[in-house]
Amino acid sequence: MTTVELTRFHVAPDQVRRLLAARPAMLADFRADRAGFLGARLVRLPGDDWLDIVHWRTAEDFAESRAKGANLPGIKAFFEAIDHVVSAEEGTIEDEEQS
Known about the structure:
By secondary structure, the chain is an alpha+beta fold. Helices cover 36% and strands 33% of the residues.
């Protein structure tokens, strides 16, 4: 089953452009360096909060990614635009479409 990382975070209004500018490089670094990374969606919520929905092949892949932290420049730049994390959760997709 696919593991989903749900991270809600706060971005100061003056950092939104920086966050969005850093996103492509962060995703490229994840694709290059994070085993099991399947993709991500960034959702802007009301106010100054955002939700990052990241799909991982397995819970182990997600755990390995967390252990690496901001180890590459694109990931670091994205993380630096975040004021603070509001919440972080992990779950599994239970209704995956079958092809």
